[in-house]
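Sat 14:20. Reprocessing the chain from the morning session after the first attempt stalled halfway. Input below, unchanged.
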Amino acid sequence: MAKELIFGHQNPDTDAIGTAIAYSYLQNKLGYDTEAVALGEANDETKYALNKFGFTAPRVIKTASNEVDAVMLVDHNEPQQSVSDIDKVKVTHVVDHHRIMNFNTADPLYYRAAPVGCTSTIMWQMYNEKEIEIPQDIAGIMLSAIISDTLLLKSPTTTDQDKEAVVSLANIAGVDYKEYGLKMLKAGTNIADKSEEDLIDLDAKSFELNGSNVRVAQINVVDLPEALERKDAFLQAMDEASKREGYDMFMLLITNILDSDSEALVVGSDESKAKFEKAFNAKLSDSEVKLPGVVSRKKQVVPPLTNAFEA
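Finished this time. Tokens:
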């Protein structure tokens, strides 16, 4: 059987990298020849989780077709979020928990998607269905992914399946998920030593919304006022990126992981800003707006933006 690469989205988070590792182990147990890779360097939070459970970060690839003919995707399906030459390889498997958009294949494939808080929750279900024992380190990295995506089960995306998976995986991994989870999340909130350019690209995704190219980035912090001291520099970096990459709107969501509140910074045309304000029923003041309780890009940001841009 020919080798296939497994990877998550660009600017990978703990779910993208952790689930790729877990899926590669599962698929190899089932007879496939796979390797988990990444479409970018691991962030601080992910590095903390990888180190905790004894993993080396997957190697980073820029293209896939120079290595393999087929790939498996986790934690994404939209082409603009995937490897640059996704159109030159065959996608044989997808495991995801996001919307399906602009995704087409020439051949039938295995596609598994569910509206849960994290792709690793689906992976946990797949291990159980296949009756494949989950090793301690794999359980740990899957647990880390769920904690990351659900903000320690506090995100509105959290489901009963996520909670059940966390308890099960924490037991296998041998950790107190609340204690470990808070340490891991805090490891990802150190922004002082990073430039604004790096921060707005650290966890960012592009979305095609009714012909508009919309960029949504998110950073997690424990001190929101301190992060907002860099507002002007963030806005400048976002504006420069928009001009360079052709974004019609760039939104940066700065989320306080301790109280689950966010502040949004927005640059773009007057028309796109008006659509943003309609989406959240909130008025921008000097390119800034408070979004209390908004922590999930997938559930609380992209859906209302989609509706507003398509209206």
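The CA atoms of residues 150 and 300 lie 13 Å apart.
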